[in-house]
# Entry
Amino acid sequence: MPAKSALRRTFAVIAALPLLTLAACGYGSQAKDNDTAKVAAGAKKIDGLDSVKIGYFGNLTHGTALVGVNKGYFQKELGATKASYSVFNAGPSEIEALNAGSVDIGWIGPSPAINGYSASQGKNLRIIGGSASGGVKLVVNPKKIKSLADVKGKKIATPQAGNTQDVAFLNWIADQGWKVDAKSGKGDVSVVRSDNKVTPDAYKAGSIDGAWVPEPTASKLVAEGAKVLLDEASLWPDKKFVITNIIVRQEFLKEHPKAVEAVLRASVEANKWINANPDGAKTAANTQLGVDSGKELPADVLDPAWKSIQFTNDPLAATLNTEAEHAVKAGLLEDPLLKGIYDLAPLNKVLKAEGENTVDDAGLGVQ
# Structure
């Protein structure tokens, strides 16, 4: 078996492990109902639906969804159709839930969206909008790492093999002229795959020297004494790159277009409010994190984390294509056929109605 083929098959097994665990314990965790999301008197169900199942992560990079839930934007737009929420910890589990019909629409990172689309041969999901850019940093122990060159030979954590940050870090390593085996994480740098929940403890214990991670994990490490060595935004044109997309089941999009438009209107409304009210939005997102996880973020973590994220309706499609190229370069993905991954017509319809600028699919939209 050729080495590259073996690597990709092994990676597929690694990527499937969270899905096997998930099948045994159910999809995500149910978010608590938001008492502020009242249904207007006389409101009707959209597309005859009893509910729309919405998924998102308990990350600040999913701030659009957090604010949309907390402020009741989704329920307001869906009328008498119940907005039902599930909170996930990783992209593969949300993709599996989408495939099983346990989620209709979800907020998710670019790598799991690419992998999900490729694995279904373009038949299950579409990206229908953007949500956030940025919010990813390389943070390190300043006693051990004082410059980018010092990263060589050190142990650096990423959230999961093949996830968005793992791909970005492997690509950055290659750009330095260093070599790492993508499967094992061993090489000129030791890439340690570590769940974001345990990475701060691993840092405190000294088992890692730093991490390439999204917010708020990066700021949690800084609160433990780590320093920001590199903001990933600095590596991208205009300092913008997709970190969170909105995806939908293709069947749901076809059968319930009005419900999809309602969720997109809520997303656009949430982003508009976030950008006009950054402090209030930060508080609302943190409050929802507390509702979902039982614990809000302290100010020394929340404040710097929130500042590094840009909330946008633009899916930044060109950067998704670049991220796919990085995954192929690292040997984690066969060259994907991404044509058709986007259907931005519903979003552009909403944006036009709101007097907002429409967005582009970089040639990767449906025919």
User: Anything to note?
Assistant: Residues 1-26 have pLDDT under 50 and may be disordered. Residues 3-25 form the longest helix (23 residues).
